[in-house]
Amino acid sequence: MFIGLVSQSDCFANIVEMEGTKVSYLKILTYHRELLVSRLRSIQCILDNLLACSFVCEEEVEIVLRSATRMDQAGLPFKKGHWFHLHLLKKSTCVREIITNIYAHVILSQVRKILELVQCKGEEACEYLIYVLYKVCDAYIDLQPWLKEIDYAPSSDATALSVANTDPISRYSEKLRHEMSRDTCFIMSYGQREETRLEDLYTDTQMDLLNDCNESLGFLGNLDQLLGDHAVFNPQGEIIYVMGDAGVGKSILLHRLQNLWSKRDLQTDAIFFFKFRCRMFSIFKDTDQISLRDLLFKYNCFPDHDPDNEVFDYILRFPEKVLFTFDGYDELQMNDLMNAPEVVSPDIKAHPVQLLDSLLCGKLLRGSQKVLTARTGTEIQSKVIRKKVVLRGFSPAHLKTYISIHFKEQAHRDQVSVQLDACPYLCGLCSTPLFCWIVLKSFRHLHTMHDSFDLPETCITLTDLFLLLCEVYLSRSGSPEPSLLKKSPRCVSETFVSGLRPLAAFAKLALQGMERSSFVYSQEELTECGLTEEDLTLGFLRPVSECDASGGAATFELLHIILHSFLAAFALVLDEQAAAGSILKFFTECSRKREPRCLPFDFCFCGSSKSNEKAPFEKNEHLQFTNLFLCGLLSKAHAGLMEHLVSPVLLRKKRALLKSYLSTSVKSHLSGLPYHNSGEGRKVHVLPNFLWMLRCIFETGSRDIAQMTAKGIEADFIKLGYCNVFSGDCTALNFVLQHRPRLLGLDMDNNNIGDYGVKQLQPSFCKMTIVRLCVNHLSDSSIEVLAEELCIHKVVEVLGLYNNCITDVGAKLVAQIIEQCPKLRVVKIGKNKITSVGGRYLANAIQRSASIFDVGMWGNSIGDEGAQAFAEALRNHPRLTNLRLINNQLTVAGIKILAAALNLNTALKEICVKANQLSEEEEEQFGEDKRLRFH
Question: Which of 56, 151, 790, 935, CA to CA, is 20 to 30 A from 418?
Answer without folding.
Answer: 790
